[in-house]
Amino acid sequence: AAKEAGKGQYASYEPELDERANYDAQLGAELRLAMDRGDFRLLFQPVVRLPDGAPVGAEALIRWHHPQRGVIPPDEFIPAAERTGLIVPLGAWVLNEACRTAAGWLNDDHATNPWTVSVNISARQLREAGFSRRVSAALSAAGLPAERLMIEVTETAVFDSHAAANALREISALGVAIALDDFGTGHSSLGLLRKIPVNVLKVDKSFIDNITGSTAEATIATAMVSLANGLDLGVVAEGVESAAQARQLHLIGYRLSQGFHFARPLPAEEVRDLLVAETKRAPLAV
Ligand code: C2E
Ligand code: MG
Ligand code: MG
Ligand code: MG
């Protein structure tokens, strides 16, 4: 009976695996072509200060401009790029392009405000030998100071991987900041915060959605800001969509946020204009 049950399970599982392999092979081939054609673009979503919304940085978010299917969001191709390994060359492109773009902004706003550009890094990239060298090469090729770059990794990408932890130590030693993305949704072992260098917690949108009620999420989001303050980390609320959420976040101690309420992901030139305007409004003494 056990054998039969096993057989039954396998039979129903096989087509799924098969489909995924097919899907990955096809999408992988398309991604390769798209890389050769240069069909990827970066948008940048501002990270802002609460309560006034002044920009303090921007996160690079990839888009695939498909000649037939139009603009494809990352959730539809990053997972396959990770499974096929194509995330390594694609992620290297993102890193270089983001550094190059940010170096241009720096040039235009005369570098007086301490904004940073953030780049999402997949587990696969982080665990690849020599990743920190890729990062320093991207910085020097672009002429971007390390202090201007932040990389975003998920708890899951780092969890249980010595290679990932070592890469983060090397990157941190370069002067690049490290953010834990989607914080609270992965392997939230708080012990992780002692094992790897972390500068910023990005509290996942799922905790922010219900922030205005007396909900479990509101309690957790409040605990996270206190955790960040106690450990001397920055903390960003992700996915802020309303003024009411922004007010509540500020009330419970959040000083940084990101979300459609303040700005959607924007073309690089629009972010540059925001940063330049902020520098003119509030020039830093240098
Ligand atoms: P993420 O790093 O957590 O990025 C934030 C996502 O939330 C972005 O989606 C952003 O557009 C969206 N978002 C921001 N504010 C709001 C809001 O107020 N409401 C709602 N509903 N959504 C908001 P996007 O650009 O579709 O990216 C999705 C995910 O794809 C990213 O999540 C990240 O994990 C991944 N990704 C994007 N670009 C890259 C990349 O260059 N490399 C890698 N490895 N992953 C990337
Ligand atoms: Mg991110
Ligand atoms: Mg996130
Ligand atoms: Mg996310």
Provide a concise account of the structure shown.
50% of the residues lie in helices and 19% in strands. With 286 residues, the protein is α/β, with parallel strands linked by helices.
Feature tags:
286 residues; alpha/beta; eight-stranded mixed beta barrel; 9 strands; globular; disordered N terminus; binds ligand C2E; binds magnesium ion; Bifunctional diguanylate cyclase/phosphodiesterase
Structural class: alpha/beta
In which range does the helix fraction lie?
40-55%
Mean pLDDT: 91
- Cα-to-Cα separation, first versus last residue: 77 Å
Domain EAL: 24-279
Protein name: Bifunctional diguanylate cyclase/phosphodiesterase
Organism: Pilimelia columellifera subsp. columellifera
Descriptive overview:
It comes from Pilimelia columellifera subsp. columellifera. This is Bifunctional diguanylate cyclase/phosphodiesterase. The protein is of the alpha/beta class. The protein contains twelve helices and nine strands. It has an eight-stranded mixed β-barrel, surrounded by four helices. α8 links the parallel β6 and β7. α3 packs parallel to α5 (about 130-140) and α5 packs parallel to α7. The site of ligand C2E has 23 residues, from β2, α3 and β6.
